[in-house]
Design brief:
HIRAN domain-containing protein, six-stranded mixed beta sheet, alpha+beta, 280 residues, Alpha-Beta Plaits, seven-stranded antiparallel beta sheet
C-alpha cells in the first residue's frame, strides 16, 4: 500500500491536523539512523506500518516496536498507539509548562506536535521520529531538530573552501545569539564518511551549529542542485541546560516542482502489507 505524499495535508481552519512522520531507528553500535516505519494521522485515524527500508534494519538487529511487531501489517487506531503516546509530555508533571516552552509549544499543542518538536526521543532509547515535509501555504515545509549539535565543537569540519574548527565557547555564543525566525545558512561537509551529502546549518556569520537530519539531505541537495529555493529558519533555541538534541529547532521551507522530492519510495509501507484495525 503506497503512502500519501507530503501534499496530503489536512488543514481545518488555520490549524494543520494531518501529520505524516517517519519512525527512525539508530543502530546502537554504528549510530547510523535508518527509516523503519511511518506514522500518519488524517485528523481522525492514526496509521502505522513498517516501510520498505525497514528490511535492512530488521536484518541488523532492529526487533520492531512494542505492540506493533507484525512486519506485514498496517495498523489503524482512533487513539495514538501506546509506543508513541509514551513519547508525549505528561500534563500532570510539575515541569510540563517548562518542557512545552523548550519545544516552542503551548498547552494547546497536540500529541503529534509534541513529538515533531521533541523528536519523540526517550532516555536510553534507539527510536526517534521526524516529520515528512508537507505541502503547506504553497511551499514544502518541515519542522525538525538539528542533529549532532553537541558534536560540532569536538572535531575539525571540512568544507570545500577549507577546514574549520569551532570552539565550545564560539559555538555556544553563536547559539545564544540566534533569535526565533532568524535565517540559517547551510553548507555541505566535505569528506563526511557517513553521508557524502551531510549538510551543516550555520549562523548568519557562518559559525557551524548542527546538521540537517541525514534522511532529509538527499531531498535538500536535489532542490538546491535544480536551482530551486530552500531556506532554514530557527524556530526555537534553548540554552545549555536543555538536552543537546533540543538545542535548535528548525523550520525548513522549500519551493520545488518536484512533488515528491522529500518522500522516497523506500519510505512507503512495505509491499504486501495488509490492513489491520487492531493494535497488537
Amino acid at each position: 500500500m503506497p503512502s500519501p505524499t507530503c501534499e496530503r495535508t489536512v488543514v481545518r481552519g488555520n490549524k494543520v491536523t494531518g501529520r505524516d512522520l517517519l519512525v527512525l531507528w539508530q543502530h546502537p553500535v554504528t549510530r547510523a539512523i535508518k527509516v523503519v516505519g511511518r506514522l500518519q494521522f488524517d485528523g481522525r485515524t492514526y496509521t502505522f506500518g513498517y516501510t520498505n527500508s525497514a528490511e535492512e534494519s530488521f536484518d541488523n538487529g532492529f526487533r520492531g516496536l512494542p505492540g506493533l511487531r507484525a512486519r506485514g501489517r498496517i495498523y489503524r487506531s482512533e487513539s495514538l498507539f501506546k509506543v508513541f503516546s509514551q513519547r508525549t509530555l505528561d500534563p500532570a508533571r510539575s515541569d510540563f509548562t517548562r518542557h512545552l516552552e523548550q519545544l516552542g509549544l503551548d498547552e494547546a499543542s497536540t500529541p503529534l506536535e509534541q513529538i515533531v518538536h521533541s523528536g519523540g526521543r526517550r532516555a536510553a532509547d534507539t527510536i526517534q521520529l521526524l516529520e515528512v515535509p508537507r505541502a503547506l501555504n504553497g511551499a514544502i515545509e518541515s519542522t525538525f531538530l538539528a542533529h549532532g549539535v553537541r558534536h560540532i565543537p569536538t572535531r575539525p569540519l571540512n568544507f570545500e573552501d577549507g577546514s574549520r574548527s569551532v570552539s565550545g565557547i564560539e559555538h555556544e555564543r553563536a547559539l545564544r545569539n540566534i533569535q526565533g525566525g532568524d535565517r540559517l545558512g547551510h553548507r555541505i561537509e566535505s569528506g563526511n564518511k557517513s553521508n557524502p551529502q551531510a549538510t551543516i546549518l550555520t549562523s548568519s556569520d557562518d559559525v557551524p551549529l548542527g546538521y540537517v537530519p541525514d534522511v532529509l539531505v538527499r531531498g535538500v541537495r536535489s532542490v538546491i542542485d535544480r536551482g530551486e529555493s530552500i531556506e532554514f529558519r530557527a524556530l526555537r533555541v534553548n540554552g545549555p541546560d536543555a538536552p543537546p538534541h533540543l538545542r535548535l529547532l528548525v523550520r525548513m521551507i522549500a519551493h520545488s516542482d518536484q512533488r515528491d522530492v522529500f518522500d522516497e519510495a523506500d519510505w512507503n509501507f512495505a509491499a504486501g502489507s495488509s490492513e489491520d484495525s487492531d493494535e497488537r
